[in-house]
Amino acid sequence: MNALTWLEPLRSSVPELDTPAWTSLERFDAALGELSSAAPAHHDAAAWSAWLLQLRHELAARRHRAPTGPAGPVWQTLAQFLAGARDLDLRDCTGAGHGAMVLTHAPTAIARAWDERLRAGELIGIAATERHGGSRIREITTRARPGRGGTWRLTGEKCWVSRLTEAAAFVVFVRDPDARISAVLVDADDPRAERDVIEPFGLGGWSWGALRLHDLPVDPATALLGAPGNGLEIFHQHFARFRPLVTATALGTAAGVHALVADALAARRSTGILPRVRDNALIALGRTHAEITAALLATVTTTRLAMIGHPAADLLARLGKAAGVDTAVQAVNNLAPLIGAAGFQRSHPVAKARADLTGLLYADGIHDSLYRSGGVSLLAGPANSRLATLTAAA
Ligand SMILES: Cc1cc2nc3c(=O)[nH]c(=O)nc-3n(C[C@H](O)[C@H](O)[C@H](O)COP(=O)(O)OP(=O)(O)OC[C@H]3O[C@@H](n4cnc5c(N)ncnc54)[C@H](O)[C@@H]3O)c2cc1C
């Protein structure tokens, strides 16, 4: 079962996608299939990363992009599911990625220039996490001090930054001269930006590591996103839209493993290696299919809410990322043993999927923190409305 077959029965749940939009999704999947046939082995990290960036450029050149209007984000969510089914490292093969923050919040001329660059396939990274802990963004210490002629000079270290050598620029979260959290765009090639690559356990498609800023000058008139002090707002608004894409990609990866396992079992049965497929395998196939489908539908709903700026979008994106990626991880953990030790070879796509999914338990929000902050929001909501009701009644 390929990933498109998986999506077909869900078509009535995405009425935004008319026939041309659906056809373009099918063409996108076909292009992924064609281009993936020329992919290098992923254990050659440099060749694999170069190919992934090239794939992004090639898809852009062939104009595989989301339709305009309300269909766009839904299309992209499903496209990322299709991409993830091939490989979780294809997590940035559609859209603006973290560059969306620049398109939405940079001064008009800068946003326009980046729109062209991103549409051509360039990549923008995000640098938020610091040594004290990425789950505590409010405590960042990277500083922007006032320089000459109204410039800011940035100093500090960001760690665990993905797309480290592939990104052309980074959105960096800093403490501005008034000690508020602001988001600034930094050119990746600035000589005062030092990049230090670290080898990850999985999700190694994009390089990963530390970004150090050594008194790096930026002009806030062009580099500042939004107003000074808008950093946290930009961060949360962005992740309400970005996390569903991450979740859909992870669920696609689980669907890809599901297909590999189902095909392997079917082949063993038809060749007589297995006289019959045992119930435990059948149950795992059935249950994981239902769980992945349910999580994907919830993800599409969150995408829709984020698109219209619904007040619950941020909460659902946080909880949905944690629960959706957990669903993908558990599904793959349940399915992987069904094809035996063959799937434990480092070069096997199932082994790669397991290692890659582990990375998503941290990237774009560590799960206990996401669930916890979700719990805080859920507790705050009803209590406030209860209080309002009681106050009104008094
Ligand atoms: C593959 C990968 C890609 C990444 N890409 C990027 C990127 O591009 N850009 C970027 O900025 N970051 C990136 N990250 C970092 C990621 O966002 C962070 O790992 C995540 O935010 C968690 O931060 P941390 O790892 O520093 O853990 P911490 O924030 O230190 O959390 C570790 C644990 O401590 C817990 N904890 C926090 N506070 C307390 C407390 N008071 N008491 C007890 N426990 C506490 C947390 O809940 C968690 O369980 C990436 C990470 C990975 C693995």
What is the first-to-last residue Cα distance?
Answer: 60 Å
Strand/helix succession? HHHHHHEEEEEEEHEHHHHH
Give the ligands present. Answer: flavin-adenine dinucleotide
- Please mark out the parts with pLDDT under 50 across 5 or more consecutive residues, or reply none: 389-394
Describe the structure.
With 394 residues, the chain is α+β, with helices and mostly antiparallel strands. The chain has three domains: 9-118; 124-229, Butyryl-CoA Dehydrogenase, subunit A, domain 2 (Beta Barrel), CATH 2.40.110.10; 232-381, Butyryl-CoA Dehydrogenase, subunit A, domain 3, CATH 1.20.140. 53% of the residues lie in helices and 13% in strands. The chain contains twelve helices and eight strands. The protein has a four-stranded mixed β-sheet. The structure holds flavin-adenine dinucleotide.
Topology:
Blueprint: H1 3-7, H2 19-36, H3 45-61, H4 71-86, H5 100-105, H6 108-119, E1 124-127, E2 143-146, E3 152-162, E4 169-175, E5 181-187, E6 193-198, E7 208-218, H7 220-223, E8 224-225, H8 231-270, H9 279-307, H10 313-335, H11 349-359, H12 367-393
Parallel strand pairs: 1-4
Antiparallel strand pairs: 2-3, 3-7, 4-5, 5-8, 6-7
Helix pairs in contact: 2-4, 4-8, 4-9, 8-9, 8-10, 8-11, 9-10, 10-11, 10-12
This protein binds flavin-adenine dinucleotide.
Flavin-adenine dinucleotide is lined by residues 125-129, 133-136, 158, 160-162, 200, 203, 208, 359, 362-363, 366, 368-369.
Summarize the structure.
The protein has helices at 3-7, 19-36, 45-61, 71-86, 100-105, 108-119, 220-223, 231-270, 279-307, 313-335, 349-359, 367-393, and strands at residues 124-127, 143-146, 152-162, 169-175, 181-187, 193-198, 208-218, 224-225.
